[in-house]
Structure formats: structure tokens, C-alpha cells
Amino acid sequence: MKRKIGVWIPHEEVWDEFIELVKAKWGKKHSVLGMELEEAIKAYIKKERDNMEFIQEISAIESSKNNKSQEEENPLPNRVCH
Q1: What's the CA gap between 49 and 42, in Å, rounded?
Q2: Neighbouring C-beta atoms of residue 22, cutoff 10 Å
Q3: Does the CA dihedral 74-75-80-81 come out positive or negative?
């Protein structure tokens, strides 16, 4: 399904550079600009998801290390005295 979008880009030179890149690759922008923009968005989404997964993995490792070091400091479980 196709969808027409409209967005404001804060730095117009970024958009101009993207258009020039598309023109250099295809020799035109008509009929390929949307396709290239979609591919750029897909690449961005993949990169960001990969980064988030990496951060989550690192956080899990760090959390595991912290839990292990706390267990080493307090080898006996906390006991409630009655």
C-alpha cells in the first residue's frame, strides 16, 4: 500500500544532499525518490532496533554481574528471626 507523506526537515541541506545522492545513483529523482527514502527509513529503523537490542543485552549482562557480586558479598540468605 502506498502512502503520501509530508514532513518538515529542520536542516534543508540534509534533504538537498539526499536528493543529490539519489540523482547520482539513478540519474534522476522522479519515480525513485520515494523508494530511496523508504529504504533509508528501513535502514534507520533496523539500526536503531539493533542498537536498542545491544543496549538491552549489555544492561542484562551488567545486571547479572551486579547480582553476582552482591551474592558474593552476602553469601548467606537473609533470614528472619522470630
Answers
A1: 11
A2: 20
A3: negative
